[in-house]
Amino acid sequence: MTDAAADATDAYSYLGPAGTFTEAALKQVPDAAGHPWNPVNNVGEALADVTSGRAVAAMIAIENSIEGGVSATQDALATVPGLRIVGEYLVPVNFVLVARPGTTLADVRTVNAHPVAYAQTHGWLERELPGHAHVPSSSNVQAAASLFENDVADAAVAPPGIDAHHPVDVLATGIGDNPNAVTRFVLVSRSRAIPPRTGADKTSLIVELPDDEPGSLLAMLEQFSTRGVNMSLLESRPIGDALGRYRFVVDLDGHIEDERVADALLGLRRFSPNVIFLGSYPRADKQPNEYHSKYDDAVYVEARDWLRGLLSGEPEA
């Protein structure tokens, strides 16, 4: 993959440099093969590439199985208009500890690591390197690269395979505290076309509550529960204009073309002062959405036909 020119509208942006978990997620996108890839420093830059037309889409991390939602991504999606999620991708996450050649584990006093990576390896680091200091890095790969740019850290937490990109010694492998850790990535674009439903889909939303009042959160949740729509993610983020004002990041099991999901969105629209539809897209795990048969599309269609008959004066069967 090569760096894209500034005007390359068919480029894809991702958190770089090469070797990051984000790049691993982008490698799962068939449409990205053969196109230029832009390595960027943060989520804001990735989304700016999309909104400006420098990239057709951007791959960004949105959730981790250990740390939960990625707040920088959630806040950016809430405030940057015109974006849609068109796909999701899962990447297993583990880490290695690397250092400049000649360094031993006993030499390590300071560790450079991305904050999320540090949180996922903190137990191992505390056990093997008690009393170490942490220097935050902008990315997992940059943590390793910085070992050769300054002497601030003795070692770095980095992705497996980093020694193929930088001349580092691997001091330890499998240092993640949870071997089953997974990061969920989403591909974001300006496309208004919604991927067709597959029966194994997700719908992502950002919902603001009305003015702080008793029962407003319950009213939001009832829009889903009364229609048999399961939520796979519900996280709150401050709106930022006043204390006590929050928006909710919501992932639903289902597609906007599913009658039960569409009806829930209509309920939200009537209830909430601001609903941001982020997209409906195939689930990365390809697990079919499960729901009770009383929420089948045909049930909603029959109910509308029944009401239409009442309004038109048709005789009841």
TrEMBL record:
Gene Ontology molecular function: any one: prephenate dehydratase activity
InterPro entries tied to this protein: ACT-like_dom_sf, ACT_dom, Chor_mutase/pphenate_deHydtase, Preph_deHydtase
Enzyme class: lyase
Name of this chain's protein: Prephenate dehydratase
PROSITE patterns in alphabetical order: ACT (PS51671), PREPHENATE_DEHYDR_3 (PS51171)
Keyword annotations of the record: Amino-acid biosynthesis, Aromatic amino acid biosynthesis, Lyase, Phenylalanine biosynthesis
NCBIfam families per record: PRK11898.1
Ranges where the Prephenate dehydratase domain occurs: 11-190
SUPFAM superfamilies membership: ACT-like (SSF55021), Periplasmic binding protein-like II (SSF53850)
Catalytic activities: prephenate + H(+) = 3-phenylpyruvate + CO2 + H2O
GO cellular component terms attached to this protein's record: cytoplasm
Biological processes, Gene Ontology terms: L-phenylalanine biosynthetic process
Protein's pathway: Amino-acid biosynthesis; L-phenylalanine biosynthesis; phenylpyruvate from prephenate: step 1/1
EC identifiers of the protein: 4.2.1.51
Location of the ACT domain: 205-283
The gene coding this protein: pheA
Site (Essential for prephenate dehydratase activity): 183
